[in-house]
């Protein structure tokens, strides 16, 4: 417990608790981001949010965040203030080869030590350049200068190694600013050390469910008491809304991997039971990858006609590796006559009948086993009338053609994203033999 | 000069300079972001980057950033530390109606005053709800409780008003966390006060040029010395890369609006001369809005066939209001035979000839005045070979059909975005009578 042990803070009056306390453990963690690009707002600080989230998922909580520029005085002040507030500090950035990268130098100064050459890292960098038949720029030697007695943190994918030092009794972990290098070092080097320091069991896993059609507050109600299904506890439930999808996350911690399986299995079963058909994908799957996998399993193929969604459905599907083998063609139009003419039908209207006719005709014309048509009519939202869109989804497969209708509230962009998601979800449900008419939380009327 | 006047910082050793000094003026500014959603990384802190950038554009610099949660002790500590470091502090968040919104309460405590009801704001909120025929929730009354003697900062679009108070000699500006409310209050209320406080002339404007085909470092070279074109100075040049586009920004400050015009006009002319045909749009225009405006001016219409870009071109165009009147149809396919069949031609190949044939056939079939075809073949990047894509753009209009070929280095996503931009840019150049074969910085071979 360091609270109060450093005497009064700056300013008047004593501060009794200097940092928000983490639940479940006593370790106070601060994230300190450095660099003019971040400080001036030129770069959005996604490194901070990634680090804070990953720590939260592992059962650790961040209590304070600081951002300073590439400036000696600010760095030194921020290191000392963080040392006074926190038990562990993750510093991000400033490990590069240029003169404005000051993290090693200021870490050494704050720790009261000198910089010494880390021979193994210099050799690694030289070997890295030798493999590419290039001489190592002389500036890179700086990246192997670490504070005396620093603990080395490996970076297998870059020239900025990390390190840990103790400054005024607090452990500091220095990480590179390049996002992919930071992410890997955080997971492989920093998190295990923080968990050990916190006295927590050190194996963690994150299980994710992606759903469509259930809002965050209703999902929270539907999953009430779910933590009780994990034998021995240690599982944390969380949500993250990415409209129109909701991500439900289970962060689990245990001593060994088998314990994670044992805790997660009953919870996963219960979550699948409660959220049911609204779960569109799990973990690294996406709605579009699930749709394409289901199509592939049936030797199927697909054609899509979109109106208001402006090509979002085709764009989402085609970003999946291998989609080109299944995706026959996509058609985008906001003109009913053009849409009808392009698929060789005469029913040119943005209506349920139009969606049915376009899906049927497109299936025949493209030779695909499945054809999806999404048409939308916006309600402009005159005085007293909620803005939103009437969505008709036509879906033709070898068994016939169905139509799903819905009315979603919201502006153009909201309806656009919702309609695209709904079209893909109808296709998923049809392919998996699930009902296509379950009411979504977003539906009105 | 407050530096050093608060005695030694926490920890050992004196701190001689506590914050990175702003160039051009002496005011030290801190941004303090509050809220558990930001602290835990659940929400990416785009409010910080927006505020820091806007300040930078107005000639002010942010020297420190702090993030804390919805927690009384952390808020109080952060207010006091910021007061010791800075001359002006912008606090963001914590002005909502719920119990975890603590900004007013902690501001009052830090300033050593009580909270008092701001009658005019209560009346405004009641009127707001009355217009919607709803009773004001009792919790909202909390949003009209401000620290005694606080300066009111108007929020014309929300129920969270802002305010300014002085804490230990430093001026604090409290702003709402809702991004659009924060942005408006920053521009209309906070920035003018900060500029006045800094003794700077208080009219500012931001002029933006969007270009495609010139990298940031080359643009920097091409615009060397450009500041000298502004009579009397006071213009700051900056760049922001959003691949594949580059934004060139001129931030200008003056006493009156006519002075801004006078300073900007010669610089704008010179930038247009130097960047030339690579400027695709200015200010709030986008490449796609420029293309659609040029089409509209010629009573034109458009059809697009995309292969590797997966519908990005159609999606970008159709997000522009009114695009549906000009955009006849879009076709997306990754299969050469499907693509050829869909436009009624027999040349099914992803080649320059294929792009030419598809563009010509699509123009005839759709009845549009202009037809654009973008086909891409990826090079997989075997050992020693740079990964990238061969791009062929076919463009048919009433004068004939042209083909533009290019090879862009990069992975799938990089090539996808580059090819879509290049297709739209070729169309822009063709519509505006500019050469379509000017070499881009991104091109190889």
TrEMBL record, chains A, B:
SUPFAM superfamilies according to UniProt: CinA-like (SSF142433), Molybdenum cofactor biosynthesis proteins (SSF53218)
Cited InterPro entries: CinA (IPR050101), CinA-like_C (IPR036653), CinA_C (IPR008136), CinA_KH (IPR041424), Competence-induced_CinA (IPR008135), MoaB/Mog-like_dom_sf (IPR036425), MoaB/Mog_dom (IPR001453)
SMART domains cross-referenced by the UniProt entry: MoCF_biosynth (SM00852)
Residue span(s) of domain MoaB/Mog: 30-197
PANTHER family, A to Z: NICOTINAMIDE-NUCLEOTIDE AMIDOHYDROLASE PNCC, NMN AMIDOHYDROLASE-LIKE PROTEIN YFAY
Family, as annotated: Belongs to the CinA family.
Protein name: CinA-like protein
Provenance organism: Belnapia arida
Lineage, highest ranks first: Bacteria, Pseudomonadati, Pseudomonadota, Alphaproteobacteria, Acetobacterales
């Amino acid at each position: 417990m360091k609270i109060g042990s450093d005497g009064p803070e700056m300013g008047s009056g004593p501060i009794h608790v200097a940092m928000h306390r983490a639940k479940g453990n006593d370790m106070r963690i601060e994230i300190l981001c450095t660099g003019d690009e971040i400080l001036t707002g030129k770069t959005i600080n996604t490194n901070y949010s990634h680090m804070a989230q990953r720590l939260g998922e592992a059962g650790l909580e961040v209590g304070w965040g600081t951002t300073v520029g590439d400036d000696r005085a600010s760095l030194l002040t921020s290191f000392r203030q963080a040392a006074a507030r926190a038990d562990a500090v993750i510093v991000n950035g400033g490990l590069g080869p240029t003169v404005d990268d000051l993290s090693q130098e200021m870490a050494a100064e704050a720790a009261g030590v000198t910089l010494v050459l880390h021979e193994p890292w210099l050799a690694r960098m030289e070997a890295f350049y030798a493999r590419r038949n290039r001489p190592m720029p002389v500036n890179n030697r700086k990246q192997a200068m670490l504070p005396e007695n620093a603990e080395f943190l490996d970076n297998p994918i870059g020239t900025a190694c990390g390190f840990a030092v103790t400054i005024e009794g607090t452990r500091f972990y220095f990480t590179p600013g390049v996002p992919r290098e930071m992410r890997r070092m955080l997971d492989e080097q920093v998190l295990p050390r923080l968990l050990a320091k916190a006295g927590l069991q050190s194996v963690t896993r994150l299980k994710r469910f992606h759903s469509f059609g259930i809002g965050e507050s209703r999902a929270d109600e539907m999953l009430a008491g779910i933590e009780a299904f994990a034998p021995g506890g240690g599982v944390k439930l969380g949500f993250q809304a990415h409209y129109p999808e909701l991500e439900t996350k289970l962060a689990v911690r245990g001593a060994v991997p088998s314990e994670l399986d044992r805790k997660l299995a009953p919870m996963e079963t219960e979550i699948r039971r409660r959220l049911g058909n609204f779960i569109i994908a799990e973990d690294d799957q996406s709605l579009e990858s699930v749709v394409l996998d289901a199509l592939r399993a049936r030797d199927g193929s697909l054609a899509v006609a979109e109106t208001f969604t402006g090509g979002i459905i085709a764009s989402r599907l085609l970003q999946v590796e291998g989609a080109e083998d299944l995706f026959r063609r996509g058609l985008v139009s906001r003109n009913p006559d053009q849409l009808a003419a392009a698929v060789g039908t005469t029913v040119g209207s943005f209506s349920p009948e139009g969606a049915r006719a376009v899906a049927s005709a497109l299936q025949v014309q493209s030779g695909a086993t499945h054809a999806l048509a999404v048409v939308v009519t916006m309600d402009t939202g005159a005085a007293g009338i909620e803005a939103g869109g009437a969505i008709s989804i036509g879906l033709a497969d070898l068994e016939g053609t169905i139509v799903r209708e819905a009315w979603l509230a919201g502006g153009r962009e909201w309806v656009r994203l919702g309609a695209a998601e709904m079209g893909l979800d109808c296709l998923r449900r049809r392919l998996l033999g699930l009902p296509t008419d379950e009411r979504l939380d977003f539906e009105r009327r």
